[in-house]
Give the backbone structure.
Amino acid sequence: MSGSSRAPQSPQTTMSSSRRRRPSAAITSLSALTLLAVATQPLTTTMAQTADTGTCADQRIVVGGCDPKDTEYCEKHCNLYGSTYLLDKCCIHTGINANLLAFEVSETWIPRIEEYGKCTGANVRLQYLAEGEDGMGAALMDDVGKNEDDTTGQGIFDAYIVQAPWLPPIYKGLKSLSQYIKENDEYIQFSDINQASRSAVSFEGEVRALPLDTDYIALGYRQDVFENPEIKQAYYATWGDDLKVPNTIEELVEVSERLNGRFDYNNDNETDWGFCLTPQTNYFQAFLAPVLQTHLNECEKNAEGGYKCLGADTGQNMFFDVDNMEPLIYNDGFRHAVELYSRFVRASNCQSQTPNGEKCDRKTAFPTGRCAGVISMPGTMTKLLSEGGKYAPPPEKRMDSVLAEGEYWGRRKVFPGSRKVLNWNKEGLPLEECKGDICPLAKDGINYAPFFAEGGESYALNGRQSKPAATDVMWDMFTWLSTLPVGQVPLAGVYRKSHLTDEATDDLGKLWNNTVMAEDLHDVLDEYFKSEEEGGNVVQDLFIIGFDDYNDALDTELHTNLILQNVTLGGLFDMDDPSKSLDPVKDKAEFDVRYDRFITDLAKRYDDVHKMHDGGALQQLSLWRGALGINPTKSKDEICQDLLASDHAAFDKLDCTHVVTLKDLCQSQKSDVEEYAPDTCKESDDKSTIIIIVLCSIVGAVMLGGFVYFIRARYVAYVRIRKAHEQLMEATLNESIRALHQLDYPLHLIRGDEFVDQGKLMRHEVLRNTHKLTVLDSLPDVDAFIAAGKHVLFFSHQWTSFTLPDPSGIQYTAMCTAMKELAKRNGWDESCRDVFVWVDYSSIPQANPSTQNLAIRSLAAYASSATYFVIVAPDTPHADLDDTCDLGTYQRRMWCRAEQICHSMRNGTEGMYLSVGEDSLAPVENDFFIESLHVFNGDLTCCRLDHKGMGACDRQSLVIPLLGLYGELFRASHEAKDGKGSPNADALSSVETFLKEIEKHQEEVFPRTFQRVMWRKNKRVEEEVILFGDLIDRMKARISSGVGFEVDDEKTGTLSTKGSDFIRHGASDFLRHGVVHGSSTITGSNNSSGVKIETAVGTLGDHMEP
């Protein structure tokens, strides 16, 4: 059974199964499965038949037949256990049949199903899988079907009891529960469920199962051993240390070794073991977790010396590198965990059971009384520690007489942490003491990292073949069960924060008849359920396709071939005398040889597992990043492009040449492509010919001209470089002007009434496929659209989860309210049919990274084209960070500031509004732009990630649009002073206000350079990178000289874009378009890609003449 924190059950109704063990043979057809049917009669049994053959419980079925008008009946059967969820659902599902597949027996199922049927009239049939947990993954594959083929799956069952490791290959066939949860969250209270369990059942931003339990690793210990005065005295006499319950894995191993073979715990006059375990990968990973994972998000030190960890994802985990899928085994931290774990196993029950040919098993060892403690999953832990528990030692094999009144022999505590951790900020990931920035969540110098192995049980619905009526039956039942006390729910354990209240703990103590155990569980989960902001550091299991295969690989190499393998066969274990097993310290030379072979073989096995699954290691990497919720999200193309810039070995290993075409990357990553595959970016043989001719000329000139040629060549080179530099600067200026008047990707808008009708922020592709997007291909089209009486409303907001923009719907509600209020204030049609909304999730492509990048490049034009700009920043809980997003967090984001400035620099602040609550809409203050003007002081995710695996910094992508906007401001001011500009005094006053603020802080507003940290070939490099350089001065000089916004292009001549009329688009006569859209065509530099160090239009080399 899964290890949940449940009340002890009778042995007859509890099926045990080993964790991490795969089925012995694949199951190819559900019809071939042996199903242990709980029902002994057909589902269609009538009430009369039931009366003749026995009770509903005897028949293990639920029958229909109830009257919704019978209020007394409904009150009696629907108002149960303090839950009101079913009160309005009396008889609502009468006659509807639904099938539920489970893998683990629980006596609680039958009364709950019977009660649910009496209330709703539903017929729910529960069937158990005879193969139990080991066959459930294959059974789900057969019944639900594979992700990539929605025609598969037999659809016999409508709902399932599942565990998270089984979901990755089939989750697309399960019903998304996100909308169901939203509509019923009054009862579900999804955010009350611990974060680890929520994450385990979420895929691509959608919840695919509803948790009812959670699994994790904890430590159990015998208080009668640790409080025994004779043992304590002897321990101190031998070691000079007090005997204490371990707080670190280092202490756990040391204490276990010191107790092993020296004391008698079970009164049989023979010495006993240290701590006991069953050697499984999840227990080794519990040792590994606090060494490898220190914080999931970047942390900032506060004034009190503590840390707040709400920044960008670090990508830390204990399985695979999130940039290249390299296993995290090539570091001293992994070796440290292996060494400790091997010593721990050697001092455990394995030293006796393994040589005797028995399975080394905590369930058979702990009842003997020979264990000082145990590591286990929660459900089994309860059976190990509870009085009369299935695996507990009886009183005669304990020393309870040493305990004081009120004390209890079997105790539980958080799994130990580590004083040594990986330093993820240093090359090679060295093992260092846990302190300071490398260990920000430490408590007393110890890094705790509770491992939530396998995720626990959850409810899931068939999303492909199940009939809607059956789906409704099962959802209502699952929702009802979610509202019941823990002890009344089948298979459920303590998995919610609300389960940790004093009242809930007292209730659990009464249920268990053991207050100490209930309080211990409370203390453990109070730590385990903490968010990172609260000091939590939860470690997630490997929830990707091939979960069992990866664990089999580790189990085979770690346990079978290394720790429990005989020394004569290359392992560490001495079968003849376990005390002589190889020690990693005393026998270092021999241990090193075996450990190195273990690492090599494990890496090969992992590679083989990658290859077993469609898409190989690259697809697995994409799935792993998704399972961890890593941001920014990356497509496989983007992963490969980043590896091309940083890690050629990984680029090859992930077979990226079959994903990206190198020639296609010559424009954006020319230097990276050339470094990886020289000459790939040669345009034609003509260049080769020219190079040969030039080289021959040079050789001839050297031979004929000697020193004279050398001097001339140096001069010519200087002239070429200077000319190329000037061309590069001019190209950048030209591109900044072009960007003001051309969209790289069309403007996509949602009509106001349809925006309201959709009920939430809808994904771009959904709106596109349902033809609900209005598309404007060019800025002249935008002008004409607005001139026709349409209003473009730009919503600027901060995403409140890593995968969805607004999972709570709070911001969406504020947007709808703001739009309706603007319509009311301006006298627009209240249906909002003339209002058109731009909002990122709906207006920017989400599925295709290439088109998404084009849209992002046009963001400045989108923002500046809007007639109204609304900042939406109500207090909203962040779905993944347990933090609140508000106006303060919004204003700290660089992209949010950039959107504001792109609008206000062309329109002023008159049309800008602030919505910080559902019914709040207020104009921004006139000086609101001042803080936003300091765009480059804002926070960026890429910088927090040290640009690892990235080609450039997001700062560089803003140079072009902001340079162009500044040029337009400066031109308007300059022409006004010359008497050529707009006579609008208010507009010119606003322009001057902007310019004065910029002049006062030019170096901050338009930094010449910035410090950028990059990772190249796994090395952290810090470099000073040109941002604006002298481009602002050049723009001023160009306009002051009278050139204005003229672009000189050798192919088309000089085309003027001068204009002096201000065109009103709604908010003000500020600048809107001092340059008239469509007044001329600009054909300057067309390349705004390839941002490296110099500018957004290329490098110096790109402008050098051959």
Observations:
- The two ends are 72 Å apart (CA to CA).
- Residues 707-740 form the longest helix (34 residues).
